[in-house]
Design brief:
This protein is about 30% helix and about 30% strand. By secondary structure, it is an alpha/beta fold. The protein folds into two domains: about 5-170 and about 290-370, Aminopeptidase, CATH 3.40.630; about 175-285, Alpha-Beta Plaits. α3 links the parallel β3 (about 55-65) and β4. α1 runs antiparallel to α3.
Length: about 375
């Protein structure tokens, strides 16, 4: 097996969740040490790391990004490189994404880019939506000043090696909305002496589930999914005084997300007042839409084999924090087919196909060649 394949399996066997990727970063440091990058930047956005390869002539700075983190999912596979940590595993393929950049690093160590600089960024905490923003805000990242940023995500269900591109939104914005309704508990025999949130909770669950259709966003993708709720406890002598609802909001654009948030918050507060309740709203796992620039997509298009290229008609529904880099550079994320018989992402039996490592490295190397010939934006 090649070095990147061995690296991928070692990382898969030793997964680390968002914000805890110190061991993964150390493994990458050991792998890249003999490759002699021109610069190594550690602790980016906490546990992130970047390897810089400087070209022979001046030119654009091109950043390729991979993720470091694993998921809180129990693996069910039984192969030798299965996760050794209960309840944590690489079920999104970030281990494979890391190996692809490692294979690119091997090529760059033997032949530096003709022009400009190449930055191989290993970013922490993608799964929580916090990592990219932390990297961009880190003062150690400022000198990098990328002109172009590219990333890929493996796509089970698509033919192996197929390249999926799209101008504009590539993956949706999303956020988790946590709603708390507070009234007053009472004896179950005298519920009228308390203030129950039960009716307001049921009404909100129904209304929020229909939010996108009520607001009418046309053909734009928009979803509101109630993922959980809680009302009181299993205490038959007590009428509840508190309820929680958890909703995932998802949209094709950040502007539509802002409209959904505003409408939902207004309705939550209105119903709380009507039912004599206090309300509180909090958010977590906030992802902006990943929006590809036309110029960066054109670089991918020119680097790809036409026979392996597919243009996605709609954005992918899942979210990615790579969109954060679009505020500082020309950016594009693309999909890379992982095979039509591969288990889906986040499934407990998923495993990144090793055959995809060399294919991913080849398309990235083609992107570097094409983007390196361009003038800075």
């Amino acid at each position: 097996m090649s070095g990147p394949v061995n690296l991928r399996r070692e990382i898969h066997r030793n997964p680390e969740r968002s914000g805890c990727e110190t061991g993964t970063a150390e493994r990458l440091l050991r792998f890249f040490e003999p490759l002699r990058p021109d610069e190594v930047i550690e602790n980016l956005g906490d546990t992130g790391i970047a390897f810089v390869f400087t070209g022979i002539e001046a030119g654009p700075t091109i950043l390729l990004r991979s993720e470091l983190d694993a998921l809180p999912i129990q693996e069910t596979n039984e192969f030798k490189h299965r996760s050794v940590h209960d309840g944590t595993s690489h079920k999104c393929g970030h281990d494979g994404h890391m190996a692809i950049l490692a294979a690119v690093g091997e090529k760059l160590s033997r032949k530096r880019p003709a022009r400009g600089r190449v930055v191989l960024l290993y970013q922490p905490a993608e799964e929580t939506g916090q990592g990219a923003a932390a990297v961009v805000a880190d003062e150690k990242f400022a000198p990098i000043k990328p002109d172009f940023c590219f990333a890929l995500h493996n796509l089970p269900g698509f033919p192996l090696g197929e390249i999926v591109i799209r101008n504009g939104t590539f993956s949706c914005a999303s956020r988790g909305q946590a709603i708390r309704l507070t009234g007053k508990t009472a004896h179950a025999a005298q519920p009228e002496t308390g203030v129950s949130p039960a009716k307001a909770m049921c009404q909100l669950i129904a209304e929020l589930s229909e939010l996108p259709s009520v607001m009418d966003f046309g053909n734009e993708l928009a979803f509101a999914t109630v993922v959980g709720s809680r009302l009181g406890e299993q205490a038959f002598g007590t009428a509840p005084g508190e309820a929680e609802i958890w909703v995932t909001l998802r949209s094709e654009t950040d502007a539509t997300m802002a409209r959904m948030v505003s409408h939902a918050e207004s309705r939550i507060r209105q119903l709380a007042v009507e039912h004599g309740l206090e309300s509180a709203i909090a958010y977590r796992d906030i992802f902006a839409a990943t929006v590809n620039s036309e110029r960066a997509v054109d670089v991918i298009r020119r680097a790809a084999d036409d026979g392996l290229l597919r243009v996605a008609e709609q954005p992918f529904r899942w979210s990615e924090d790579f969109g954060c880099f679009s505020s500082i550079a020309q950016c594009a994320m693309f999909g890379l087919g992982a095979g039509e018989a591969v288990a889906d992402l986040h499934n407990p039996d998923y495993d990144f196909p090793d055959a995809l490592i060399s294919l991913g490295a080849d398309i990235f190397l083609g992107i570097l060649e094409q983007a390196g010939e361009m003038q800075r934006p």
